[in-house]
Specification:
This protein is mostly beta strands and 750 residues long. Helix content is 9%, strand content 34%. It has eight helices and 52 strands. It has an 18-stranded parallel β-sheet that branches. Strands 32, 33, 34, 35, 37, 38, 40, 41 and 42 form a nine-stranded mixed β-sheet that branches. A hairpin with a 2-residue loop joins strand 3 and strand 4. The model has no long low-confidence stretch (mean pLDDT 94).
């Protein structure tokens, strides 16, 4: 048995049961010594790896190595925050073995290499929701190569933003296996004043049949000097490819560079159900540029139906896009025009297009100019939208009943999901005693405090009944799947109107196993049948409380929207963290899908801050005083806006959240205004949209500076609701709760 040569460091899976004096790699058994060149985990090996190999092991297609080499055995390796401080090669059992059997340029999906089809013969990098990160540290990591693995939830996060120098990062011969719904690869651009010149290579990578759990996770953010994608198969997944997220909030060029390069060659993109297709974005840095080449690649159904498979933001004259010898095909009959760029200057050479109405068209730039007022006329007119309605002309519109609904009210903002540091089991980082002062600085009027596993905060001297709503956030999972595809787990907020409301819940549901008193007590997170959980939800509502599905698209994964439904008049958290997160986009759509199924549920907003207070996710209330005793019943009635813009509505003098019976002659009255300062920007365009259960009723642009009024002649619809979108930032910043008109007339009323 040969000794493992100098410069190689072995990592054994199932270390407890593995031999401690020998290590097998690519069929060859090497003599090793525990603690010297044999280790249980990658971080342990990384901590001592300091020698560079002088020879190349049998079976490796490298001419030489320029850094220490970590070898991984067959089996599963837990990657718990591997933080290399110097250059490394990480080589799995299948280093050098391409998972894609044929090149993509033949036009068909490259078959999986049979040598990579058996997980039991692979080195599997396994991560978790919080751990599982490979994070190179500072500029001393000039070289990082990861080769020959199955990747299961392990993330490469290169966040070196304050570094200077050159580095090369590569992933080669990798097969990604799911499901997972989070970000996979992150390359953060350096800040202005730093000069890290990073080159990234993803070569011979396979990402196929991968369930993203509907969370809006992203395969790769690229903000680096040069990125090359060579022989990548990205097929049959709802994961967003990149190079930005759904909200297009990540730029493809670092702040320290004038221009970045991206090269895609010999790749296959097919059956992609994630938003944006392949998108290069410079919305956040329009003064920077990207030069992109796409060669010999296939794009087959590589976007959502009707969207473009390849979106390139031609931000200025220094940007360049060249597409050559590529196939663009859509077999779904969408007959859509293919959008390749925003601006002039793209070059297409030798490309074939099938199923598109036109070769290419200029994608309109984001709208930056808008009129002071929404589109109205003096006389009544038809909106001409999907669900066309008569808009009441200004000569006929009367908003006195709308004004009466909100007479004497001021505008207030609230964060409906936060965590504090108040002792006990709380995991917040910001002391409860400091919250109110910081909220005043941010313009936040109240917060719902939902610290985990306790009610302690309600009974502390620093509890402020004018500014804090009481609650708690347990977690659970259903004992039966109920349409959940990959995870039936979820978190939920129980909000209560008085200090002993939570105690009443825990006493009536012994599954929580509450132990202790008000200050010291804690409880467990039991699992429930769906029937029992709905009993819990009904009980919370019966004592005057509220049940909220917190960050619903972050944990649970289900095809049926009603799997997320907690009963009538419960809440779906539709803004999660901020207006720009993928969870906010996905959770809002979930709420819309639940409404479409005839359910009466409300939208809410939560930063879920475990650190400092935030004003990046607020709900807007109209109330006569700043006090929880007024905010709580409004929240319970759904009479507030999930977002940073004030929306007022009424039908028959009844405000947002009301449930009425439809009758002829009803008019929907709407006022939109009172933008929260952080979301109101000069030279910006906002869009007001009104929806019914049948579709879009009305839409129009405005600049956000003055209140807008709209009156619509109601029709026999289940509900009406209003949204406000920021068209420059590409995000929804407010969604009003509905007014329902589907209440049945009672015999007494008749």
């Amino acid at each position: 048995m040969l000794p493992l040569p100098k410069g190689y460091y072995a990592v054994a899976a199932d270390f407890e049961n593995a031999p401690k004096d020998q290590f097998t790699y690519k069929g060859v058994c090497y003599a090793v010594e525990e603690g010297v060149n044999l280790f249980a985990t990658a971080p342990e090996a990384d901590a001592v790896a300091n020698e560079i190999p002088e020879t190349v092991l049998e079976g490796l297609n490298y001419e030489k190595f320029d850094a220490p080499v970590l070898l991984f055995s067959v089996g599963t390796h837990r990657i718990d925050n591997l933080n290399p401080t110097s250059s490394r090669y990480l080589l799995g059992e299948k280093a050098g073995v391409n998972p894609n059997l044929t090149p993509a340029q033949f036009g068909e999906l490259p078959p999986l290499n049979p040598e990579r089809a058996d997980a039991e013969s692979e080195s599997i990098m396994y991560g978790g929701n919080a751990a599982g990160n490979i994070r190179p540290q500072d500029a001393s990591v000039e070289l990082l190569v990861i080769d020959g693995f199955y990747n299961q939830k392990a993330r490469l996060f290169d966040r070196r933003i304050n570094a200077t120098g050159k580095c090369f990062v590569a992933q080669k011969n990798i097969v990604y296996i799911g499901p997972w719904g989070k970000l996979h690869n992150l390359f953060s651009g350096s800040r202005q004043g730093y000069d890290l010149q990073r080159e990234v290579l993803l070569q011979n990578v396979r990402f196929e049949h991968y369930a993203g759990k509907g969370h809006g996770g992203v395969f790769a953010y690229m903000s680096t000097q040069k990125a090359t994608f060579d022989n990548l198969v990205f097929h049959d997944t709802d994961v967003v490819f990149g190079f930005t997220e759904i909200s297009r909030n990540t730029s493809a060029c670092p702040a320290n560079l004038e221009c970045a390069e991206i090269c895609i060659k010999d790749c296959y993109f097919g059956e992609m159900r994630g938003e944006n297709g392949v998108m290069v974005n410079l919305q956040q840095r329009p003064d920077r540029s990207v030069k992109m080449t796409v060669e010999r690649s296939v794009f087959r159904n590589a976007s959502l139906v009707g969207d473009s498979p390849l979106n390139f933001h031609m931000a200025n004259e220094n940007c360049a896009l060249t597409v050559s010898e590529c196939l663009f095909e859509d077999t779904r009959g969408a007959d859509a025009a293919i959008t390749l760029f925003d601006g002039e200057g793209a070059v297409l050479k030798g490309c074939e297009l099938k199923g598109f109405a036109a070769e290419c068209r200029t994608q309109p730039s984001c709208v930056r100019e808008a009129p002071a007022s929404i589109l109205l006329q003096e006389e009544d007119f038809e909106s001409g939208t999907e669900d066309s309605h008569v808009i009441v002309g200004t000569k006929h519109a009367d908003f006195s009943d709308l004004a009466a609904c909100y007479e004497g009210c001021n505008v207030y903002r609230g964060d409906q999901h936060v965590h504090t540091s108040c002792g006990g089991r709380s995991d917040g980082k910001f002391p409860m005693s400091d919250w109110v002062a910081r909220m005043d600085e941010l313009g936040v009027d109240f917060v719902a405090v939902v610290d985990h596993r306790q009610m302690r905060g309600f009974f502390l001297p620093e509890w402020n009944e004018e500014r804090f709503i009481m609650g708690s956030e347990p977690g659970t999972s259903f004992l039966e799947p109920h349409g959940c595809t990959h995870s039936s787990g979820f978190h939920y907020n129980m909000l209560v109107p008085h200090p002993y409301g939570l105690a009443m819940i825990l006493a009536n549901f012994p599954e929580f196993e509450f132990r202790g008193d008000e200050l010291t007590g804690t409880f467990s997170y039991p699992k429930f049948t769906r029937e029992r959980f709905l009993e819990l939800s009904e009980y919370v509502h019966s004592i005057g409380g509220m049940m909220v599905h917190a960050h619903p698209k972050m944990i649970m994964a289900a095809d049926d929207p009603l799997a997320y439904y907690f009963g009538e008049h419960s809440f779906i958290e539709t803004v999660v963290g901020s207006y720009a997160t993928a969870y906010s986009f996905k959770s809002h759509q979930l709420w819309v899908d639940i409404l479409a199924r005839g359910k009466h549920v409300y939208a809410s907003v939560g930063s879920d801050s475990h650190r400092d207070p935030s004003n990046g996710a607020v709900a807007t209330f109209y109330s006569k005083e700043r006090h929880v005793r007024t905010f709580f019943p409004q929240m319970r009635a759904g009479n507030f806006t999930a977002g940073a813009v004030g929306i007022q509505m009424c039908v028959d003098g009844q405000p947002m959240g009301s449930e009425l019976a439809y009758r002829e002659g009803q008019v929907l009255k709407i006022r939109v205004g009172d933008f929260f300062a952080p979301v109101l920007k000069d030279d910006n365009a906002y869009e007001l949209r009104v929806y019914s259960d049948k579709g879009l009723v009305y839409s129009s642009l405005f600049d956000g500076k003055e209140p807008q009024y709209l009156a619509i002649r109601a029709q026999a619809r289940a509900f009406y609701r209003v949204e406000v979108l920021d068209l420059v930032a590409h995000r929804r910043i407010a969604a009003g709760n509905p007014i329902w008109l589907d209440k049945e007339e009672t015999a007494e009323a008749e």
